[in-house]
């Protein structure tokens, strides 16, 4: 396990981030639909069955299960048969603030028509079941049965009306919930696409910036040391091939990221010759972790440009990576002149391409779980020493390609 040194707290600059209609999927079979709606109407039936049984119990009478259960079940059979009509009415004549007022009239007409079908059908089923159960026709014959039906018909029709509206209310409630969930999923999908596009744009932003700086280094060496300039261009060609191969990957193993940094720093060492020494320390756990593609390059470039390049004597650039609990800590340290007094990570001081890119990518990828800090390094005794320590803390995750090449 690599142990990361504890930097002093002054100065410290930290950034922390926070971040007709479609039916629900089902097998599509009419058999499945029949079973589903039979279950729904069966649940409604059981509510009334329990109410019927409770009446007998409260009167201290034995429960007549034929009346409490079987006749009640027969009452709901026509509702099950009429379900396609109910669904057609709900879907073809939707109700709501944006719906035409004529739909209300349509529903009233359908409600009346359905009640004139459901009530006689339920009474007929119950009548024949009662005759079969008793073994004989009821006393008084058909005349008394028709008279009883005529007197109970208005109450039964009104009962059918309110059940019609309960069905419609429940249907629209569940349909609204389904639509709301679909909109949530669609919004989340669009947000993910937007974040992915933004991350891709941030990665692409690094390529011309990095290429310009590398070509600038080669141009500076052309007149002074043509052989060194040639070596820079050869290294740059190999580096660009690696960059293009990895351009579509949002995350890569840290081992590959460090390999990339080895090649990048090889170019800088040609430029600085003996003035640049590079130390890389990473434990095995850290090397197997995945990190955002090109996350180290802007930090290393800043260390070289603002730290190493400003000193004439030999300088050292150190890259560290270690797993700490559930996080991966990446550090890039130089021993240059350090941060200017009063410097902050927020704009305008921290508004360069490199730091802005790193901050935006961490925010988009990890939200509040990521942290970017610029610190003053400290020695073993805790005393501040020259230079700048850039520290990135992200969640530790593994996956993708692994192994250094």
3D structure, described in words:
The protein is α+β, with helices and mostly antiparallel strands and 405 residues long. 59% of the residues lie in helices and 13% in strands. The chain folds into two domains: 8-18 and 202-395, Histidine kinase-like ATPase, C-terminal domain (Heat Shock Protein 90, 2-Layer Sandwich); 30-188, no CATH class. Helix 1 (30-58) packs antiparallel against helix 2. It is rod-shaped. The two termini are 21 Å apart.
Brief synopsis:
By secondary structure, the protein is of the alpha+beta class. Helices cover 59% and strands 13% of the residues.
Keywords summarizing the entry:
405 residues, Heat Shock Protein 90, 2 domains, two-stranded antiparallel sheet
The amount of beta strand, in percent, is 5-15%
Describe the sheet with the most strands.
Answer: 6 strands, mixed
CATH topology of the largest domain: Heat Shock Protein 90
Architecture of the largest domain in CATH?
2-Layer Sandwich
Q: What is the CATH class designation of the largest domain?
A: Alpha Beta
Roughly how many Å is the radius of gyration? 38 Å
Oligomer: single chain
How many DSSP H or I helices?
10
* Gap from first CA to last CA: 21 Å
Helical proportion?
55-70%
Order of helices and strands: EHHHHHHEHEHEHEEHEE
Q: Can you tell me the residue ranges where pLDDT is under 50 for at least 5 consecutive residues? A: 8-12, 17-27, 401-405
Give the beta-strand count: 8
